[in-house]
Amino acid sequence: MAILDLDMARNSNSTAPPCHAHTAPASDQQRRLRQAECNKAGADADDPNHGHRPGAEEEEEEEEEEELLLKGVRHLCERRGITRLPARYVLPPSDRPAAPDHQRSSCPTIPVIDLARLRAPAERAAALAELDAACRDYGFFQVVGHGVGGRGMMMLDVARRFFDLPFGERARYMSPDIRAAVRYGTSFNQLNDGVLCWRDFLKLVCDDLDGVVPSWPDAPADLREVVSAYARSSRRLFRELMEAALEALGIGGPGAGEVLADCDAGSQMLMVNCFPACPEPDLTLGMPPHSDYGFLTILLQDEVNGLEVRHADRWVLVDPLPGSLVVNVGDHFEMYSNGRYKSVLHRVRVNSARSRISVASLHSLPPARVIGPAPELVDDVKNPRRYMDTDFATFLDYLSSAEGKHKSFLQTRRLLTS
């Protein structure tokens, strides 16, 4: 499940579509946006030659511009020192992020789960109830007392230094192959996005760490050591959280044992993200509204906020709690829980002052595993089955089908909608 950049993400079916939702082809949209900007500004209005260059020259310039943009946001900023957002990043007005809500006291905050309480026998029951409520009502929570601490700080530091490398070093890992185990890229799905997202990333598949680490970047010199140590810590945390969540769901015995064994043998992918400072942040997004495909995602982020979670029909900005990790439920876990736990939309907004670094560790079961509602959570009276079984091949079919353009993956697997 972790072999595709989009393996663990599904499109939004909200009114604010993801960057690769239905849009005009890039070149046509770019021309229209540029023309609209020119009309609005009135610039060059008196120049009779403005907008009348030969078609071949215009196409050549557009091809050069597209080639530049696909090299990434960092490269664009380093080369040009831009003060205006290029047209390919400008969302339609209806899809742009609203101005931040400064009435922070009125905004809900996502729950905080202290693992120290989960590990204390006298407090475990209460902590499990809090975890269950967080997964059920929000689909997101922040974790403290996780013990990752220093490895997380080292991970953010080496990530920042990787994105600070000269473009030639980063470009060694650029590839059009979205199945590549190591891939440096930009946007959300850069080959298909009609409007690009203000994001660069390094994707690292972490299955069989001993086998894949030698293929990872060798600069900075400590990247392989630091990232592999963090990946192992994240996998241990995923296992501990899954064990607690299964207990909170009331699933024990052989059923829990089978799932936990699959967690130990499951897929893991690190998405190391860089969201540079943006000259016009209210016109674009760092990542579009989406939900994650797997079981749980564990997010490490620096002190710069940007993650927003959809809750109660509004976007809630997640303020990074010092030393915390953010965890969210994925599509697979919603299906396995028969809808009790929620895989919710989230997005990333950018700012004009500071670059933001985050590392998402996406976890799921082995690709061959068929996933459906847990038998313990299904009965014919109160809790009928709400989802069809699914596997990785089903998800690939969804991505390549026309259905994937109109429905979220969860919608295609639902048997009941309420």
TrEMBL record:
**SUPFAM superfamilies per record:** Clavaminate synthase-like
Q: Which UniProt keywords apply?
A: Cytoplasm, Dioxygenase, Iron, Metal-binding, Nucleus, Oxidoreductase
For this UniProt entry, the molecular function terms from Gene Ontology, in alphabetical order, are: dioxygenase activity; metal ion binding
Q: Where is the composition biased (Acidic residues)?
A: 57-66
Q: What is its main location?
A: cytoplasm
Q: Which residues form the Fe2OG dioxygenase domain?
A: 266-365
Q: Where is the composition biased (Basic and acidic residues)?
A: 47-56
Name the InterPro entries on file: DIOX_N (IPR026992), IPNS-like_FE2OG_OXY (IPR044861), IPNS-like_sf (IPR027443), Oxoglu/Fe-dep_dioxygenase_dom (IPR005123), Plant_2OG-oxidoreductases (IPR050295)
Q: Which GO terms describe its cellular component?
A: cytoplasm; nucleus
Q: Where is this region: Disordered?
A: 1-66
Cite the record's Low complexity compositional bias ranges.
15-26
Q: What is this protein called?
A: Fe2OG dioxygenase domain-containing protein
The species this protein was found in? Panicum hallii var. hallii
